[in-house]
Amino acid sequence: MTTGMAWSSSLISAALVAASYVVQPVFAHSAFWHPSMYGFNVTAQTFPYDNRPVAPIKNMPFSKWWFHNHLDYPPHPSDVFLLPAGGTTTAEIACNKGATSYFASSEGGDIRNPANPNDVCPGSKSITYHTNGIDDLEGCALGIAYKSEARDVQPGDFTVFSVNQTCVWTRFTEFKVPERMPPCPPGGCVCAFFWIHSPFGGGEENYMNGFKCNVTGSTSTVPLATAKVPRRCGEDKRNNKLFSAPGNCTYGAKQPFYWFNLEGNNMFEGPFSPPVYNDLYNFRDGAQDDIFQDSYVTIPEPAPNAALPVLKDVSTPQTQTQTQSESSSSTSTSSTIGNGGGPITVTITVTASTGALPSATAVSSSSSSSGGASSW
Ligand SMILES: *[C@@H]1O[C@H](CO)[C@@H](O)[C@H](O)[C@H]1NC(C)=O
Ligand SMILES: *[C@@H]1O[C@H](CO)[C@@H](O)[C@H](O)[C@H]1NC(C)=O
Ligand SMILES: *[C@@H]1O[C@H](CO)[C@@H](O)[C@H](O)[C@H]1NC(C)=O
Ligand SMILES: *[C@@H]1O[C@H](CO)[C@@H](O)[C@H](O)[C@H]1NC(C)=O
């Protein structure tokens, strides 16, 4: 009897050990992987805690979450991620370095899926990288700071310049680079990958991987505008908001989301309504073409009923010069905001005879698919 009980209890503890091994996945989460990144060779053992690039960020003091606490693990100076102005760049996003082109320096070697090169996490279900499927993607973003030293970069220095709303579904993920990106300073720029997953994909958490980057092929020198905090303005059926509120959006250069940490947050949304990189926060899919100092004629203070901003037509810069003239003529111009789903077309009517400021009126607002995740 005694022997039998000892035997069965050791069987149970063996089963428990096996179970705890199984529920603690070796491969999970996701990160941006490139030799230009900070923390390229950081493993689970490098820090007293698991600070691999894929480890999620939450409830941390600033020093622990900013650049993933990888500033002491810089890339080689020759490793720079290139951003061709007006072109497309391809990033690799995976749950483990071994699932990327850089497997050679991964502890576990090459774990890529020969049958599917786009497999983000070979051998694991998509929920391990926080999505229940292709309908549960919330997008990710690349931000840029026009500074050469990562240690000089402050949270407000990052501007989101590209979004992929179907991130993190494929290992090879394309990012469109705005055509008017100006050149970086002589030492290059500093970039970062940002991602917050769906509320159905697991607990609330942020992802941030910094990397060295450089803009090539610039045709414009107009700097980026000062980045503002994004606002939740899209249709949000999960929270019973049936219509988007375009006047409530932040337009132009926007900061990345800093959320759910102990310090340095710029977003204060609750755990079930995370800020996400898609139309819900006016992050159109692809290049963020309206982030420059001359992108808009006017951007009113956002509010649910605010007037819509007026994009400057940079190809015909004379369009808006009549606003302060003495003539009583009226001009109408229309612009399309954003380049992704659900563009908002605004028409401005400028009547200058009174000398008053021009009034912008949204005559047509065809933001049909500005519903964020639901449009996917
Ligand atoms: C990362 O590790 C690989 C392999 O050991 C090495 O060749 C490379 O120089 C390392 N990179 C950095 C940035 O430390
Ligand atoms: C997002 O990445 C996927 C996979 O690389 C690509 O097919 C898609 O065109 C990208 N979307 C944008 C808007 O760049
Ligand atoms: C960045 O790219 C520009 C344009 O190609 C080039 O002149 C410059 O040397 C590059 N800087 C770095 C640090 O790679
Ligand atoms: C407007 O934006 C604020 C800030 O993100 C948000 O809290 C509020 O719910 C939004 N209101 C509407 C009607 O979109």
Automatic annotation (TrEMBL):
An example of a GO molecular function for this protein is:
monooxygenase activity
Q: Signal peptide position in this chain? A: 1-28
Q: Which GO terms describe its cellular component?
A: extracellular region
Cofactors, names only: Cu(2+)
Coarsely, its chief localization is secreted
Record localization:
Secreted
Entries under InterPro entries matching the protein: LPMO_AA14
User: What are the Low complexity biased-composition ranges?
Assistant: 315-337
Q: Where do the segments described as Disordered lie? A: 315-345
Kindly indicate whether the keyword Oxidoreductase belongs to this entry: yes
User: Which keywords does this chain's UniProt record carry?
Assistant: Copper, Disulfide bond, Glycoprotein, Metal-binding, Monooxygenase, Oxidoreductase, Secreted, Signal
Asked if the record carries the keyword DNA-binding, the reply is no
Q: Which family does it belong to?
A: Belongs to the polysaccharide monooxygenase AA14 family.
- Kindly provide the name given to this protein in its UniProt entry: Lytic polysaccharide monooxygenase
